[in-house]
Amino acid sequence: MRTLAALLLLALAVVPAAADTVAEPRSETEFPARVLAAADGDTVALEALGTGLRTKWGVKVYAACLYVVEGADLGEDRCAALIRGAAPRRIVMHFLRDVEAGKVAGAFREGIRKTLPEGRDEAVDAFCGLFTEDMRRGEEIVLTQLPAAGLVVERSGARLGAARDAEVAAAVWATWFGDDPISGDMKRRLAGL
Which of 85, 136, 139, 193 is deepest in the core (most CB within 10 A)? Predict the structure, then answer.
């Protein structure tokens, strides 16, 4: 009996903890399968829904992982729920190359303006103004939507600010999940479609 128990323990010890991470396969970037999100007194457990790769002109820019609150029911129109839903969610953008701050801010502005072509200039400028430093390979931008906090923006663990304007936050999410996303393939992979 001891031998059987020892063999079972040994077998468990050598099985890789695949459930602990998820990978974006084309960049081989690994992300935690589950994370805790905390902001302004809210703490929620999030689980990975999908991963994607952003490329531009064939160059890998960042790998991303989308997280949603554990057990979330996103309904039949998953992308609409990811854009405007109340469920806490997070996207982690892990940079695979250096990118200038102006290009990061410009890409967000372009994505926002596809959905929100005019108005809310102050809120759009405030959001895009959070990206003032160049991104280096290996650094991350983390966007977390929590009911009490709005869309919280972090860079490599440091909080940069938050977009509390619901229309601007929805336009940011539409960058990946809207009718005209930055990449249809990335939209499908991130949303787990």
Answer: 85
Q: Is 9 exposed, middle or buried (0-12, 13-18, 19+ CB in 10 A)?
A: exposed
Neighbours of 32 (CB within 10 A): 15
Q: What is d(CA 95, CA 141) in angstroms, rounded to the nearest whole number? A: 8
* pLDDT tens per residue across span 84-95: 988 999 999 999
Chain position carrying tokens 């039949």: 76
Q: Which CATH class is domain 19-190?
A: alpha beta
pTM reported for the whole predicted model:
0.87
Distance CA 49, CA 82 (A): 11
Domain boundaries defined on the chain: 19-190
Burial label for 167, CB within 10 Å (0-12, 13-18, 19+), is: middle
Asked if residues 108 and 160 have their Cβ atoms less than 8 Å apart, the reply is no
In what helix (H) or strand (E) does residue 112 lie, and over which residues does it extend?
helix 101-115
